[in-house]
Fold:
Amino acid sequence: MSARSENAGSQPVDAQEQMVAGSAWMTAGSIFSRILGAVYIIPWSIWFGSFFLQGNALYGKGYNIYSFFLIAAIAGVPSAIAKQVAHYNALNEYEISVRLYQRGLVIAIGTGVAIAALMYFGANLFTGGDQNLVPVLHSLAWAILIIPTMSLTRGYFQGFQQMAPSAISQFVEQLARVVYMLLTAFIIMRVLKGNWVTAVAQSTFAAAVGALCGLLILDVYYWRRRGYFRSLVRGSNNELVVPAKQLYGEIVQQAVPFIVLGAGITIFQLIDQYTFAPIMHAAGNYSDAFLNDLFALFGVNANKIIMITISLASALAITVVPLLSEAYTRGNQREISNQLTNAFLMFEFVMIPSSLGMSAVARPLNIVFYGHAQEALGASILAFSSYLAIILGLYTVVSALMQGISQNKRAVKYFVVGTVVKFVAQWPLVYFFGTFGPLLATGLGMLVTCYLIIHSLNQQFGIYYATIAKRTNGILLASIVTFVIARVVVWLGMLVAGDGRFMSFVVTAIAATFGGYFYVYTMLRSRLADDIMGPRVAGLRRRLHIR
Structure:
């Protein structure tokens, strides 16, 4: 996509088409990044050998803590910047947008340094008794120095509806990260026959390497488009005078709720990380190593794969926030209702078939990524987690929608309610259902939060439920048939080809192709894709020769 086609304000763009175009960039970047972030596990697991589950559990525990610290370091500033930049751009006050970005940089760099220091020097406080986490947390602290600045710059581009720089930098960041972690894992585990904890620490240090590469890509984009940004500043109305103190206040006011809501899934994962083993010890006589293996199955392995589909929802959420902010600034309630409805439909259009399809291929997919270690339990957890992904993805979208229309405090309140539900349900569900307990408690807590947010949105702005229901029926029917097709292909394929790693990959690919083609064909043939994604899909219909 050219810079001209992306430039906000260069020409009138229909809101739905703008949402679809932005979602396309963010979805592509997010999906490719997530795929890279999952595929690396195949060679990584082979090189770690018998230490794989222990190494993956350590990696996951470190990343859960890091993710929470990272959200605190970023402090919600990138999303807040995107929202406020879109707000001032809608008022043709581009000079204020630039100043907002500059003030945001000061906050991002300051919080990054402070949080990185806390994580590095206070690592022993967050290990939960596992001293292997100390070198992992030390290595991850370096990434926190870089990522806030990178994320803030992404938010600035998104505020101008320019999604390509964010998407491409996200992909480059992930590519550099994966290359570094695979290279170091191979050298340490296979060449040097070294310690698996050291290899995990280097794999997590890869986050800093990837962040540096992603930031460089953004710098290149900004340098190439600096003339366009300067022309917007010259054409500003310059009617508003916003003191620096007020800009800082706006950033902080908008950012704090983003911390809580953005960390929502991570907070639930941390609850699992610190409560699962104590509850299981109360339920039976289990060793720490065995419980680490179980945690790796539900808290790391399955989570890593379902995040591929959840990232679809994340991409939608990031795109919707600045668009909703513009409509909210203009006070156009009908446009807000339309965009809310479109956001839900776009979420369903992608998320429902993806989750059902992943559940259908759970067994061969689990073998492809994780081999035969705890194969049956791992496949069952992945299948269940695939359904859970719909609720987690919905939370990602609805929390972003609330932020887009400045309902931050209310959204935080609803999340707190859901977290209380998670806490209350955690002990009995883990005690009686074992590894499925944390997933059930997460689903219950997130479902309560999603219901409260959607109910609030409908009360305030109105959601066209009749439109959603009619199109949801078509999406759900096509998704169920897609599930059946993929499941039959998996059953036949594994019956004939066996369950080796390579053949499982072949079976998964064939099942995904047949099921995916049916869904795409049905959506295009019925014109449901046109109603949800806009007229651009007509070109795809022509290329596939579908009438």
